[in-house]
């Protein structure tokens, strides 16, 4: 099997196609995904926050808001790399056309990952502005958040693309959501710290990308906690680089017979 | 030099042999047809030429390049019209061509209007592909395949599912391209189509090439008045489903 690094120029062409389509659809597509974390913030932060004033000395609203920035980016990536990629790949067969031009599978994967990251940054940053408006940002370092959302969502994108390439059927996407994404969302330390939970939960959480992204956004928005930001970024960087080959292999298996 | 050269070309999906050691030469500037019943291996052969199927055995040279190892180079000089209309449904007719030019990295500003005219779609540039008829979609696919000024165009069943008028329009388009010196490879199971536009053809059955020649040679060899007769003579009358 031929394993090659993506050609950035080719990947950009794939990314550009998604941007072209998004420029039509963004008005309809932006709102629901964007409202999701806002609803969580209101229900949990302002609802539960009435009873639970602070967590480890941090006001509960601030605690949860800084974590939800990470999950806003994650959900954007998850939808993009499952349903949207599935439609492009299987229903519209767009990838067949791309691959009959000089674009190769590794370019396609890199381009789609880049687009998923772009979307994550759009949604994550939109929510970050809401957090800002609610006055829940404590550190000027928060301005760096979008750059780190790219890092986290690249990891989610590699996993999502692999899953979509492997299962190939839209009916099985609920397994991904129910068994992986939702548990990760709930046990990543967004809603409560894992400190007082049994040790094994820390170990499990440590292996999920969202846990690290939450530590980063929290470190930037409530911090600054440079050590945590650097350490967790290193985790994401290493894991994402190692994972990149996985969607390439499975996409090639699905698209090139 | 041949535009495409297959030598003992072989491809299997698991136990199923799709293309079984076939040899063929597609001369430049001709229209070359692959005929055969469904499942004979025509589409797989096309996919190996345009890079959507791995070559499992033998040799395949496309435009003088190795189809296995020089895929990017091969694909940049190729135009592909697939069996199913894999257009970008979210983009307009014009944007489908703009985006295709981008995939190829070619500047096609002046060329896009020309291609839209060639495909008789100048009045529909702002339509979405879903709003087009089957014949228009097929013509858009052909226009899209021409965006990079290809030396070779591969068409997989270019007129399947089209009504007679739409089919004639596609034939006119293809004959025009042939006149411009582009090499065409097409698969079809319409004998009339093969007779009208192919200079040379091979008949595939059960993953092998069973006959080859110009339409005239085949008619003479089998003493038949048309290719339909030749085809039935070679592949038999039994249903293959």
Tell me the total number of β-strands of chain A. 2
Low-confidence stretches of chain B: none
Helix content of chain A: over 70%
Largest sheet of chain B: 6 strands, mixed
Overall geometric form of chain A: globular
Give the overall pLDDT of chain A as a whole number.
91
Spatial separation of the terminal alpha carbons of chain B: 38 Å
| Gyration radius from CA atoms of chain B, angstroms | 18 Å
Structural class of chain B: alpha/beta
Q: Gap between N and C termini of chain A, in Å?
A: 12 Å
Helix-strand layout with pairing:
The complex is a heterodimer of chains A (257) and B (241).
Chain A: H1 8-47, E1 54-55, E2 58-59, H2 60-91, H3 94-99, H4 105-133, H5 145-167, H6 173-186, H7 199-206, H8 209-221, H9 226-243, H10 245-255
Antiparallel strand pairs in A: 1-2
Chain B: E1 2-13, E2 16-27, E3 31-35, H1 42-50, E4 57-62, E5 65-66, H2 71-76, E6 78-81, H3 93-104, H4 109-118, H5 134-145, E7 152-156, H6 164-179, E8 183-188, H7 191-197, E9 200-205, E10 208-213, H8 215-222, H9 227-235
Parallel strand pairs in B: 3-8, 3-9, 6-7, 7-8
Antiparallel strand pairs in B: 1-2, 1-4, 4-5, 9-10
